[in-house]
C-alpha cells in the first residue's frame, strides 16, 4: 500500500504492508496489482484492544486459478512499531502548494506558542458510579446547548475556567467544564495518557499539526524532538498507552468547541469539555450570528438577538 493522503493532506508516498488507522481518522492508499494472478486476503484487525477481532476481504484477479486459503497472519503488536509508523506520516511539501515556497509565508514551525495546555485522561468512581475525566473533571451536560448559552450570555449554565490547563492530580469531580481561550493565538496541546488503553482525541472546528508523540511522561525537553517542518494536519490524534502526543494549533475560529475522547463510552461518561474561543470585537467577520429562524430551547426560548 502506498500512502498518498491523510485527512486532506498529501503525504510522502511511502509504502506499507500494514497501516494503523485510529478512531476518527482516515487515510488514502494506492494498491498496485502487480502480483501473480491469484486471490489475496485483505485483512482488517483490531490493535491494542482486549479482544482480537479480524475481518477479511479477497482481492481477486480475473484470471486467478488459485483461491486464497490458510491462516491470517497477525499484524504488528508493538506500541513502538506503531508510534514509529505514525511519525513516518509526513506532508509532501512539493504538492498542492505555491512555488518555490511550498507553504507560502505561513509555517507552523516558525510561530511561537503562547500557551501550553496539558490534558490527561483518567477513570474512576464518582458517587460510586463509573466516570471518566479530563484533568480530573468529568463533564456533565447542562440543561441547554452550550453555544446558545454562550451566544445569549445566559448565566449559570457553565463557568469559564472550570477545567485546569494541566493535570491536577486531584480527585475526580463532576462539572460542566469550559476552558477559555483568546482569539488569534497559537497554542501547544499535550495529550497525556497514563492508562493502559489506547486513546484518541478530537477537536471540533479545528485542524492541527501533530508535532510529536512518544512513550513515557512528557517534559518540556520533548520539544527538541518535535517535527517542525512537515507534520501532517489532522483533526483527531491518537495517544498510545502510557504515552503522550503533542499538537500545535492556531486558534483562529471563534466559538464554543467540543474537545472529546473518540472512545464513545468514555465520552458519554465525562471525558470531554468545551473550549471557548472569544473575540471581544463580536464582529460577523469572526462569527456569524445565530439565524433568526434557528430552533431555540431551554432558557434561550424566545430570544432572537444577542443582549446589549
TrEMBL record:
It holds the Pfam family Cu-oxidase. Residues 1-63, 144-280 form the Plastocyanin-like domain. Gene3D superfamilies: Cupredoxins - blue copper proteins. InterPro entries: Cu-oxidase_2nd (IPR001117), Cu-oxidase_C (IPR011706), Cu-oxidase_fam (IPR045087), Cupredoxin (IPR008972). One of its GO terms (molecular function) is copper ion binding. Belongs to the multicopper oxidase family. This is L-ascorbate oxidase-like protein. It comes from Iris pallida (Sweet iris).
